[in-house]
Amino acid sequence: MTYTAIVLAGSRPGGDPLAEQFATDLKPLIPISGEPMVRRPVRALLGSESVGDVVVLSQSPDRIRAALPEDRRLALRESGDTIASTLLALCWDRNVAWPLLVTTADHALLDPAMIDEFCGAAEGADIAVGVVDRETLLKRLPDAKRTWLKFRGGAYTGANLFALGSPKAAAAVELWRSVEQDRKKGWRIVSAIGPGTLVGALLRLLSLNEVLARAGKRVGLSLKAVRLDNPLAGIDIDKPEDHALVEDILAGRA
């Protein structure tokens, strides 16, 4: 199965403090190891056997263009104001080739092996979400600070990899839109699925798969978590310390 890869390379409303530290107003243009951050995940996607075309979405596509590699499979489009509105527009676009693989411009450590592992495991699900187990990540990077979602049997951080199997995924994106501003608060995300699920998650009575099964039942879709082997799949760049960590990893210092 060949995916159309979507790279979310938008900007936060009102400016991005991290971008400003690097003398730019666009986060995707923050330098990583001597090149614009957005170039790294795009290059990884183009190098994956699981990916056909790559579409980069940004509110400033003309400014992002110069930061990208030359490739006939690569296109730029203007994004919406939020992640949810951007994904919903894709779900409604009849010209989009499904399935979709969605990632972000700040996934600077993404590589083709991670992509191929995720895409292979995601097949058959309406929506698949990439995650990394806390034990696996902290064994590799003991001091890493991530947002952890805790369930019975383990805690996980997101890997910024999502597979959307068909336009039916719009139902789940609508649910996501209702909690988009609180996406770093795990309890708010789970509470959108229902009070019983929230209580089960808070008391760790439910596993990650059980929570996703309940969420899928609510929106009429099959949801799947894909646990990735490489802990670096769980590292993105939101804060200065994330940037420093990624630079150290790429330089072999971490």
Keywords:
254 residues; alpha/beta; Spore Coat Polysaccharide Biosynthesis Protein SpsA, Chain A; eight-stranded mixed beta sheet; two-stranded antiparallel ribbon; 11 helices; 10 strands
Short note summarizing the structure:
With 254 residues, this protein is of the alpha/beta class. Helix content is 36%, strand content 21%.
CATH topology: Spore Coat Polysaccharide Biosynthesis Protein SpsA, Chain A
Number of domains: 1
What would the principal axes of the Cα set say about the shape? globular
Give the CA-CA distance, first to last residue: 35 Å
Order of helices and strands: EHEEHEHEHEHEHEEHHHHEH
CATH class: Alpha Beta
Strand content: 15-25%
Per CATH, the superfamily is Spore Coat Polysaccharide Biosynthesis Protein SpsA, Chain A
Reported for the largest beta sheet, the result is: 8 strands, mixed
The average pLDDT value, as a whole number, equals: 89
Rg over CA atoms, rounded to whole Å, is 17 Å
Helical proportion, percent range: 25-40%
Could you say what the CATH architecture is?
Answer: Alpha-Beta Complex
Write down the oligomeric state: single chain
Structural class: alpha/beta
